[in-house]
């Protein structure tokens, strides 16, 4: 009897990734997919693989998550993350934290060690402290690129709105026990109001996982994604029998039809089939499943 299929797919944001930033985006996603895949091959859980992959992306300043996040209108990082265990349908999510270098790790603590699903702001940071997750100086999460972008914003030197939001990260994994998990981590949309929360930490909207069907993670303009419950659209399409790729494309069609929105989705079904679709210019992504010698990825997938 063959070994069970394991698989992981990660994203590193949609939007129009500038040409010089494409290689680091692809490289970061490939490294995260490999790291998550190694967890799965060592019989680690889907939750463990998703968290491991996302932590690597949070550490990579290329991405708008953890260190390297965009700044709010007040010049601060405000971080959101969420994680769903498709085995139990339990969720852990945090929003509006400033002092946590790995918000996905905190989301996991909420999932596994609290009786709640979503903690915000100061309460979330107090929970982090109580759980032994270090609180860091928020300035240590700000990189020069974002300081400069913020200075340009204050000076009125920035261009199209699409350039204001970048590079949220996420992952969906299938483990050897047939369980799925999905998660996201983001610094949100640049120069947004203090307290703004998008889709990324909201279960069923920015991400969803149900081991009976599949897992999904989304990236794009959170305000639009929230209005259609985007991740659930793709999950429901799979429940109706759609293939992972068709489910991703169908969800994007709904987004466009309903709110003229654009986004990117990564999808994994319970057999390990991958779906990747985006109506934005780019979708940084990578994936690897059993039988592939290494992860493959890039900054453009199947566009519709
Ligand atoms: N969806 C994220 C948000 O609205 C941003 C992104 O995916 O780029 O916070």
Topology:
Layout lengths: L6 E5 L7 H23 L4 H14 L19 E7 L4 E8 L5 H11 L4 E3 H10 L13 H11 L14 E6 L5 E7 L20 E4 L3 E7 L1 H7 L1 H10 L4 H16 L3 E7 L4 E5 L6 E5 L6 E3 L3 E2 L1
Parallel strand pairs: 3-4, 10-13
Antiparallel strand pairs: 1-5, 1-11, 2-3, 2-6, 5-6, 7-8, 8-9, 9-10, 11-12
Helix pairs in contact: 1-2, 2-3, 6-8, 7-8
The structure holds aspartic acid.
Provide tags for this entry.
304 residues, alpha+beta, 8-stranded mixed beta sheet, 8 helices, Glutamine Phosphoribosylpyrophosphate, subunit 1, domain 1
Provide the CATH superfamily.
(Glycosyl)asparaginase
Going by CATH, the architecture would be 4-Layer Sandwich
Mean pLDDT: 94
Largest β sheet strand count, sense and barrel closure: 8 strands, mixed
Q: How would you characterize this protein structure?
A:
With 304 residues, the protein is of the alpha+beta class. It has a single domain (7-298), classed as (Glycosyl)asparaginase (Glutamine Phosphoribosylpyrophosphate, subunit 1, domain 1), CATH 3.60.20.30. It is 34% helix and 23% strand. The protein is built from eight helices and 13 strands. The protein has helices at 19-41, 46-59, 103-113, 121-130, 144-154, 222-228, 230-239, 244-259, and strands at residues 7-11, 79-85, 90-97, 118-120, 169-174, 180-186, 207-210, 214-220, 263-269, 274-278, 285-289, 296-298, 302-303. The chain has an eight-stranded mixed sheet with strand order 4-3-2-6-5-1-11-12. α2 (46-59) runs antiparallel to α3 (103-113). The longest helix is centred in the first third of the chain and has 23 residues, at 19-41. It is globular. The N and C termini lie far apart (39 Å).
